[in-house]
Each structure stands twice: as C-alpha cells, then as structure tokens.
Amino acid sequence: MGKKSIIPFGPQHPVLPEPIHLDLVVEDEVVLEATPQIGFIHRGLERLVQTKDYNQFIYVAERICGICAFGHSMGYAETIERLMGVEVPKRAEYLRVIWHELSRVHSHILWLGLAADAFGHEALFMHCWRLRERVLDLFEKTTGGRVIFSVVKVGGVQRDIDKSMLSEFLHVLDGIKDEYEQICKAFLDEPSVRNRTYGVGVIPHEEALSLSMVGPFARASAVNYDVRMLGNGAYGDLSDFRPILSDNCDCYARMEVRAAEVPQSIEIIRELASKIPDGDIAVPVKGSPAIGSEACNVLEQPRGECYYFAKGNGTKYLDRMRMRTPTSQNLAGMAVALKGCDVADVNMIVLTIDPCISCTER
Amino acid sequence: MGVFKLGKMTFGSLFKKPETVLYPVQTKEQPAGLKGHIELDAKACILCGMCDRSCATGCITVDKQARTWSIDRFQCVQCGYCITVCPKKCLSMDPNYAPASTVHASDVVEVPEQDKPVKAEKVQATEKPAEKPKAAEREPEPAKAAETAVEKTRDDVLEAKIALLDEEKAAKVRAALAAR
Amino acid sequence: MTLVQEFVPIALADLHRECAVRKIEGWRFIQTHAVKTDEAVDLYYSFMKDGKVENLKVEGVTKQDAVPSVTDLFLAAFVFENEARELFGVDMRDIAIDFSGAMYAPAESEPMTFMSPEQKAAREKARKAQAAKQAKEDAPVKADSVETGGARVFVMTPERRQRLDAKLANMAPDKVAKVEAALKAREAEAAAAASGAKAAPSGDETAKPADKQAAPKAESQEPVEEAKNPKPVDSVLEGKIAIMDSEKAAKVRAAIAARNGEQVDGAKQDAAAEALRDAELEAKLAIMGEEKAAKVRAALAAKAAKKGGE
Asked: With contacts defined as CB-CB under 8 Å, which chain A residues touch C55?
C-alpha cells in the first residue's frame, strides 16, 4: 500500500493540448480522484456583448474558439434570427451547414492527429494534419479565411459558393477519402493504439446519461443524441441521419465514433451539395431585438451540443448572450472517467473528451 | 501483422512531390477572395464615417476636418464588416496580407477634395434645417382653414419640437426660422 | 426549425424539486446561466427531452437568497453554478465541486453585474421608445372613445390615468404638481367643450373618418360650407389624427381646439383654448429635462413679449 499524494497536472503540461488544471489524488500509480480546474484563459466574451452591437458580436463569437469558429458564428446568428423572427433563405441555410460539416471534418481530423500525438505516434499525427490542410485550403478558397471565416451574418451568409466550387469540394473530399481510410485503419487496427486505448476511461451508458454528457464523448457510451437529428435548418432536409454510436464506452470507442463521423459529414456535404436550391443568400435585418425577448438555440459542434441563449433589451446591444459549450458540459464526465485510471492514461482520457477550454471559459 | 498499417502511405510519400513549398523562394498562390487587408478607394470616399462607427475593433478612424481615413493594421481582424456597411462601396478586401512592420503605426489615406461629393454635402447641410419647418408645416395642414389660429399654435408646436431636439439641431432650426 | 423552446417561470423554493422531477422524468440537463436584470439576477435552468428545450426561469434572485445547488442531481452543473457565483454574485449553496470563488478568480468581483452609464442610458432610451410605440398603438382607441362632436374632448379614461400614474411615479414632486394642475385645467376645458359640442349637431358617421380622399375635397368647400356644416371636416380630421402618433395627434388637436374655439364661441372659447394650450405646454415641459424646459420657457416669454408689442 502506498500513501496518498496529490499531483498537480497542468495547466501547462507537455501532454495537455489545452490549459486545464487537474488535481490528481493518486495512490501508487492509480488516480483515486481528479478535480478539474479551469479559469486560466477567461476573457469575458459574454460581457463583451454589452458593448458590441448584435452585428458586430458575430465577429467576437467566432473568436471564442479557433477550431469551432464557424460553428459559433452560425449558432450565434441562428439565435439572433430566432430572437428577431428572421427567416433565413434556404440557400443560406444549406451553405451554412456545408461549411459547418466541413469544419467538423477538419476538427475531427485535427483531433485524430492530436490523439496520435498523445499516444506517441508522430508519423500518424503528421499525416492527419496534412489531410486537414486540404480542408483548410477549401475554406480559404470559399471564405477567404483558414480558421476564422467571418462569412456568416445575421440574416444569412456573406459569400456564395458557386456550382464549380461545390464540385471542387466533393472532388477534394473524395481525394481525402482514400488516404483517410488508411489513416483510420492505422488508428483502429494498430495493436499499439489498441493497447493504449482499449478499456481505458470507461464511462457506462447509465452514467453518461446522468452526467448529461454531449457529443462524441456521449455517443461513445451509446447515448443516442445528436443535435443534427432534430433537423434544425438544412439538417431537416437530409434523407436520413442517424447518430454514430458505440457501446464500448472507452477511449477506443470515442476514437471510433469520431473517425466514423468524418465520412458521415462528407456524405452530408455531398447530399446537400446536390440538393442546394438557388436563391438569395441573405435577407436584410433591420431594427433591434425587442425588450425582454428571449431565444435559445442548440447546435451540434464537432465537440458536441452547444447551447446559445440571447436576451434583447430594445437596443442594438443584447442584454445577455450565453454560450454553453460542449466541453464545460463534459468536464463532469471527465472527472468521473479519470477515477481509477493509471497516471499514464490521464492525458489520453483528457484528450478523448476533446477539451476546448477556450470555448469553455469564453 | 498489423504493425505497418501506415507503410503504404509512408513509402508512397517518398516518391510524391512534397506537400509544402519552399517558402521564401516559392510562395503559395493567393485565392481571389482571401482576407488579406482592407483597401480604400480614396476617390470614391465621402468620409461619412460609417466604417469608423461600425468597426468592432475600432481600428478605422475617419477625420473629416483633415480629410483623412486611417487604419491600424495591427488591430484590424479582417472581418469585412466595414465593407458591407460602406454606402459608397469604396472599401475592398485585398487578397495580399499586410506586410510586416517594425513600428506600430496606422496607415493614413488622404481623401482628396472632390467637387461633386463636397457640394452634395453642403447642399445637404443647408437642406436639413429647411426640412424641419416643412415637416412642422405638414402637421397642422389639415387645419388649413383656420390659418391664423394655426399660425399661433404652430409656433408653440415648433417651440416644443425644438426643445425636444438636441442643441445643435435646435440652433440650426432656429436660424432657418429666423431667415424665413 | 423544429426546435421547440419554452421558458417556464418558477419560484426559487420550487427549484430543487422541479429539477428532481425532471431528473426522474428523464430530461437531460443542458445548462444553467444567470442574467442580470435591473434589480436582481434571473437564473435559467435548461433541460431537454425529445427535441424540446425547457428553460426553468427563477426570477429576481437577490444576494440574500440562498440558491440550492442542483449538482447533487446533475453533476455537470458545477461549472455553471460556480460561474454564477463568481460573475453574478449569486449565493450558491452546496456545490459538489466547489471552487469557493477561485474558478475564474476575476480581478473584479462580480464583473457581469456592472453596467456602464452609457448602457443604462441606451436602455432607458429603448424603453421610452417602446412606451411611445405603445402609446401609438393606443392612439386610435383614444380617438374612438372620446368622440362627442367636432371638438376634441379630453376624457380621463382609466387606462390613461394608469399610464399617467406610472409616469408620475418617476417624476419629481414639483413636476407632479404641475402635471396635476395641467390635467385639472384640461378637464375643465373638456367640460366646456362638451357642452359646446352638444349644441352642434352630431352624427358624423357618414363621412368616413379614415378616408384621406375626403380631406382635400372638404377643404375645397370650406369657405362656403364650413360655417354651415363644419362636421365632415372635423370627422375627417379625427380620422387623420387617429392614424398619427400620439405626440402629433396632441398637437393637431390643440390646433383644432384653438380653431374651434375661435369659430364657435369666440373670445371665451379662445381663452379656454389658450389655457388648454398652456396647460399642455406645461405638461410637456414637465416631462422635459430642466435645461430644455428653461429654454422653451425663455422662448415662449420672448414670443409673448413680441405679441404684446404688436
């Protein structure tokens, strides 16, 4: 029997991708308890809504996070449109979803690379990020930005994607597909990867439900929930959408779910690109949200469900803007998953919730 | 044996041309719509200041007296909101990134004096106060029949209205009234 | 959009029980957040089930109210509850993972409760604009309700009184007195006008009030027709007034009252109209800022002096 000791872990630690601090209570090599602590990069962006008007804030919203930037601007715009009762043209909805799914592809490939880095597979990491670069090039061509696009506005989108560009999208994504399959094989079949992830950080299905986990983290514990299946916006026009689930409940399952979501997103882009209607890409939005009007909205970000809430006060500034990001919801799940694991597995488990602390703290 | 899952890809990349470019020698081609930096077409600018007021980072400054438009390139986030609000569409996004610099300074663009837009501005300035009394006239219009009575009340109405306006405008309107 | 959103106000005492009920019913906890209002803080607890988002809204939580934590039911709430305490100063009790104010450790305590003077001013302005809009919506109703003839008669309807009371509540006492005086003057005038109106024949249903075409026609006939039958013009006018917003309407009415005064009863009515106008002006001044009011008064005095000189 060893004696209990506490290891401070993070916020700056070689294996942690994000500034999160963990107090690990360990006995020998086993973690008995883990207390997450955030608050190192709180920027008060929710406060900023009071000094930037609702059109300007969209550029703040997309700077909440460097990876789900598009998702935040889209979720924010949808919330304001709900608040003000604006009907967005169909084409704008399709374009938003196409970009959003593309950013899911880039986010998941980025995450796979980070995971490879976490279990020490440098070459796999490089290959993942090489593929991601092609997706970023697509963004660059259509929006003018690689990470932050500034392409959504309240009432629609600012730029259109023409037909030839859409077919280029599909061409590039097809080109990725072949190499992506090889990478996935390396992730899912390689014994060294399996040894590192199989049976690590298990969260049973019931616990995942009671911890109200979201995103791929929850779906890996067979929680059948994905905001996309509610059919908001252009998601409603998909012929078939089924969340990808796994009942392994461990780190391997989370990797499996994310790996399978990339082809699914590509399929969504393909379907929407073939169905996209012609028409306007934006409607003019005049006036300001009414006093006391409230609206909420949910959106499936690459990391899971993101909740938005906005309250108007009659001016062009909002009373309150709330963004509940997926990671803050998953922190409780992470603390539970860390209980009973080895110290060496901590970084793997932290990584598999795909933490985005800058989202969490805003 | 599942160890060399990446073998095919790794060996393949030995014979492919590299994904990267030899940077300072070669540069990547900029796509047309790239968000590089904001450019001003000084000839078309009317110095209305919409870009100044709408900029989320406050990097644009419009000085009407000095007839300058300046931008702090280090603060600009290339969101393009100023381009969408510009009434004359004289702002545009250039696909080339702003060059690096050793000093933190704003780029200042002098907006040349133009005959036409300036005149238009002046005309507007004189028109504005004239419009107000007109608007005031319109209200008692239905009661045209009793002109004299209306005249009296109109003064009251005007006074009350002027009181509601802010100082600057009120002064203008009064001047216009006196002239009339 | 198929997402259904709902905001359900509940009492603070029921909060924990409601959350427990939702836990048993299988709702998924989404989040908790606080919203700063003028006096206190509103807390929102969001739940989702079958594509429906329900936001339980606890209104008016003050610093003295102890809010029970829901982390015993939903552990995921610990981030949001710590956040509400640090940024909004809500007194959260028994949070499962309690940072006791050191999660964000903001440099200023409760940074989200601070509101700059400019923001306050902007909000006030927005509120006034809404009040004006409300009044505009009410204006047609007013026009119908107090129609007794050619002259506009001021009647203190209960709704009007209510609105006025609300306004008066925010004013300084001396201003309130002024407004009350103005009201009395107006009521007296209204009584006089009503008696005058009874003498004139009523029943202007025939001239469609909202018909804009009728106005110029009626005006063209005026020199001959007016003395004989001033009714149609008035009713047309009333229709027009009804479409205007309240401020304008009041002005136009003052003008008409003045005119009617001159035509119907001559000097006596004229004086009454004058009094009415003065009263109205006074009331207006009372709502204005001190500075502006002073200016307007000066202007009026100057005008009166000029008139006297003539």
From this structure: 294, 296, 309
